[in-house]
Amino acid sequence: MNQQLLFNIQEQFDNYVSQFSLSDPEEQQNIDLKYQHSYQVCNKMKKIIDDMLEGKEAYIAQTIALLHDIGRFKQYQEYKTFADAKSEDHAQLGVSVIKDNDLLATVDPINRELILKAIQYHNKPYLPENESEECLLYTKLIRDADKLDIWRVVLKEYTNQSDNNTVNLGLSTAEKISDAVYQQIMAEEVVKYEDLETISDFKLLQMGWVFDINFGPSFTIIKEKEYIDRLYDTLPKTPATKEIYSKINSYLEQQSR
Ligand SMILES: [Fe+2]
After folding, report:
1. Hey, where are the domains in the chain?
2. Distance 122 CA to ligand 1 centre (A)
3. Using an 8 Å Cβ cutoff, are 99 and 16 in contact?
4. What mean pLDDT value characterizes the chain?
5. Predicted confidence (pLDDT) at residue 256 exceeds the cutoff of 80
6. Which terminal Cβ of the chain has fewer Cβ within 10 Å, N or C?
7. DSSP-derived secondary structure letter, 235
8. CB 178 within 8 A of CB 198
9. How far is the CA of 123 from the centre of ligand 1 (A)?
């Protein structure tokens, strides 16, 4: 992997995405949102790996970042949703798209396999078991970079009050917080998507992603961008949300020690 190969893959990625031109402007917005997300995840990835990886390894990490959500375009075109539970696993779909379009033809087979595995694992509830240290490293990196940028995307939606139903996975606007969501966060667990009932639940799930963050630079970005405070600002202030907010802050404090 080198700079030139990454440029070529970026070009092929752009060409691939340009096929997705939808007549409804609101639908096209969702395609554009995922296109921008792909490049923004690359930027976040560069920040995380700055002091950690260089050369070939840094380009592998950036390729994973660029391609991690390539399944989203077909998913949206076919199902008009980003909810995997209502359609199909977008990571698995992405791996098929990469293979069908030969996007990694110029990458040697060992690195190609690593890239595909990290993409496959990027959205799973847990890290894979029985994988190589190298595979785990790239999987953890993409999981961090992805979350850092999703916080940017959702906060933009929440503060514009645009109520993008697709970003909100079609969840209820009721202010209720589900008990299962509360319990998982208080146990420092990442909340399962299947337990979401309301947009507030989804915001709490997003706050709880801190328990699944792996690298120091990611915690620094969370603090700099004030992601947790800004999410909390959009939530109703109830005893449960206050408790969750303080739980998450004390976890973040532990991490920076
Ligand atoms: Fe994804």
Report:
1. 3-146, 172-255
2. 7
3. no
4. 94
5. no
6. C
7. S
8. yes
9. 6
The residue to which tokens 């660029």 are assigned: 66
Tell me 176's DSSP state. -
pLDDT of residue 174: 79
CA of 247 to the centre of ligand 1 (A): 27
3-24 pLDDT tens trace: 999 999 999 999 999 999 999 9
- Look at residue 163 in the predicted model and tell me its pLDDT: 60
Gap from CA of 69 to ligand 1 centroid (Å)? 5
- Per-residue pLDDT for 57 more than 80? yes
**pLDDT, tens digit (0-9, with 9 covering 90-100), for 193-203:** 889 999 999 99
Distance 149 CA to ligand 1 centre (A): 11
Provide the β-strand partners of residue 198: 172
**pLDDT tens-digit profile of 126-179?**
899 999 999 999 999 999 999 999 999 999 988 876 666 777 777 888 788 999
DSSP label at 50? T
Q: How many whole angstroms from 95 Cα to the centroid of ligand 1?
A: 11
User: Helix-strand-coil percent breakdown of the chain, rounded to 5?
Assistant: 70, 0, 30
Q: What is the 109 CA–ligand 1 centroid distance (Å)?
A: 23
C-alpha neighbours within 13 Å on the C-beta side of residue 57: 12
Give the CA diameter of the chain: 54
Q: Write phi, then psi, for 129 (nearest 5 degrees).
A: -105, 160
3-146 under CATH 1.10.3210.10, yes or no: yes
What is the predicted pLDDT for the residue at 125?
87
Rounded CA-CA distance 138/154 in Å is: 24
Phi, psi of 36, rounded to the nearest 5 degrees: -65, -40
How many A from CA of 239 to the centre of ligand 1?
32
